[in-house]
Protein 1
Amino acid sequence: MEQLTQFAPIILMFVVVYFFMIRPQMKRAKQEKSFAAELKKGDRIITKSGMHGKILDFSDKNNSVIIETGAGKITFDRSSISMELSKKMNEPVAEKKVLEKK
């Protein structure tokens, strides 16, 4: 029993690290993966490097997406699309549609 009480702080520390660091990171990675899988043609996106564009086509062979920008067509990897920036950019459009319907 004495050995268990000696290791209790270490065990507690691992539990805290898991619930405050590892678990949220795994949850976020899962959300980003589902976001990338749910993309469709015509969606407006922002890449992690800051490039704005609209999705034209997908390439399942390379796991990439072709976007149209002001400079032309560019191919990006699906993982380079920023989930939070793309969602922020598309939120005002959704709110405007709701206001127009009323």
Protein 2
Amino acid sequence: MAVQGKKIALYVLVVFVLYVIITDPAKAADYVQIGFEGISSAAKAIGHFMTWLADGAK
């Protein structure tokens, strides 16, 4: 039963994403850019943390 719910939720999410892309491509591009900036920031933060650990956590 839970698998059925996950499939329905995934289907609804895909339909919503396609709707946003079709109705407002510029806004969809902004969302993608925001997402990639967030991923980039997180990767940089992890890199800084690992460097800090490698330097002896000083």
Protein 3
Amino acid sequence: MAVNAKKIAIYVLVVFVLYVIITDPAKAADYVQIGFEGISNAARAIGDFMTWIADGAGD
């Protein structure tokens, strides 16, 4: 039962993404840019944290 719900959720998500891309490509591009900026900021924060740890955690 849970597998079917997961498949349905993925199908609905894919249909929604295709709908947004087809109806408003500029907005879809904005969403992709926002997503990549979020991933980039998260990676930078993890890198800063690891550098802080490697430098002695603020000694």
